[in-house]
């Protein structure tokens, strides 16, 4: 039997999802067009950026690059979802505990991990699991658990195909097409709720997210996010295209050399819902988001980022982006913004490549380095090796909390803002909840930093071997 690659299935699925979401939320289509226009203009204005993206194999993925998000209700749903994503080569990377920011979920991101798979299509799904234990009223908690236990968010067809894939080791072309169609059903929007209006209200009063997860047939995709090369420009142009962005751009400020991830979103839409007993109501769930990705930071770099972000957020207003960005920029002067310093101080991850000069040198193979670290700097100095930053492929808990909160009602929004300086960070609540998450998933979550570290180490080793071969 001949199987199609998991990359192909992921690529087809992300396209199908994007098409479905454009039909469901027309503003998403508008946003895609705007982002594509800004990206084109940015590349035209910055040929160096274009060359850099080309060199890193990222130019081709730019137009297909997006992430989405879903929220699940039970351990069994999380477990099956992990198996579904595995068919598409998407693995759980990173653990995000958002309860520290008053959002009652914890999360991981399912995404491809190898460089080749990322460059083919880096489609990711930020996947949250609701913490029912945070509902204070025991009767309501029990009721919510019962409602969730009664639903099955997967079609019989997709479950059969997941099993088939696991047993055969892949899917044929025809099975893969069938899988995409069936899998898509889980993420579809439903205008009918599975509960009556009073039940929805009670859960909504507890927390809007609880109602969003519990009252519907499945975990509707709640946003899809294209990658822009200039988020400030897209934020500026959004209102003219009939899209109202959230007040501030989350994440680090604009820089010469972007770090991590900057994100902004537009407000969730009010959508009419038919509740059980033919009662009409409304629910806001689905929104749009854009992101600009920068380089991945090491543990040391990340610590400095968290420290500066905490400092800036205490001073910066949360309702005025211009003022907010100005304070961020001031505070982040303490974060070096040239590639040599970022590399020498071990603040960011890099990939090493031989230059043409380095290739000639390797052919002559006369180099004699002392140690890896010293010699790598010497190689770079000699012009034999080029170091390019690795792009950040993951998410940020403080930003994610900000995105969640921007879609809550005003009352909850204000309440949540007071938790802002809590600095949610993986491990903040110890590892107990992470253990629960991994137990439900049935496998460990991959540590994102170790992925970047490995990629850097492999490239370093290859370069050093090439330059020292035959000694
Ligand atoms: C997820 C919010 C987080 C991001 O990009 O950080 C997020 C959600 O609202 O379900 O999408
Ligand atoms: Ni998002």
TrEMBL record:
Region span, Disordered: 410-430
Enzyme class: oxidoreductase
CDD domains, per the entry: VOC_YdcJ_like
Gene3D superfamilies registered for this protein in UniProt: Uncharacterised protein PF07063, DUF1338 (3.10.180.80)
This protein's UniProt keywords: Dioxygenase, Iron, Oxidoreductase
SMART domains assigned: DUF1338
UniProt key word Ribosomal protein: no
One term of GO molecular function: dioxygenase activity
Residue ranges, compositional bias (Basic and acidic residues): 412-425
The EC number(s) this enzyme carries: 1.13.11.93
Swiss-Prot/TrEMBL cofactor(s): Fe(2+)
Family named by the database record: Belongs to the 2-oxoadipate dioxygenase/decarboxylase family.
The protein's name in its UniProt record: 2-oxoadipate dioxygenase/decarboxylase
